Predict the structure of Core-binding factor subunit beta.
Amino acid sequence: MPRVFPDQQKKFESEEVFKKLSQDSDIKYTGFKDKPHDERRQRFIQDLSEGHSILTFVSTGTNLTLLFCSKALSDDRTAEHKPSRENVDFESELGKVHLSSRFIMNGVCVKWIGWVDLETLTGKAKLVFDDQNAKIEDEVMRQVMKETQERVRLFEESQRKWQEQRQPHSPSEMAS
């Protein structure tokens, strides 16, 4: 089953959820809500160092568990899942962490781009269409569809042969 829709960009531009989330929106860290604020800050930083976090778009209530590693879309589960500076950047702005995460949402390749204030655990983010991964996933989808069509063709051919073998060919075979 393909992971993406055939015309991802059109879906990104037309679906209401993407229209809302493609605007700069307020976000907040939603992990460990039952813990004191200082512990939540420490856990947030620890989560980021491990390459993941739970962040919410406040206006829509959309909760996302984001992965901040270059191999996030890969099926290679043995790959190193440590974040790069490109995905988790503590250095470009004092007191903030800038984040970037690629993933597939509702059959569309997107990139989550935002920042979080390290004191308040709130910030701003948006989704953008991820053209680079959309092309890759589109090619994967085409290959899967081609392989599926070939399997269906082979199955239908074997079914046809099986049916031919079951049918009698001569009048004497029909009498028996």
Helices lie at 8-14, 16-21, 37-50, 131-166, 171-175.
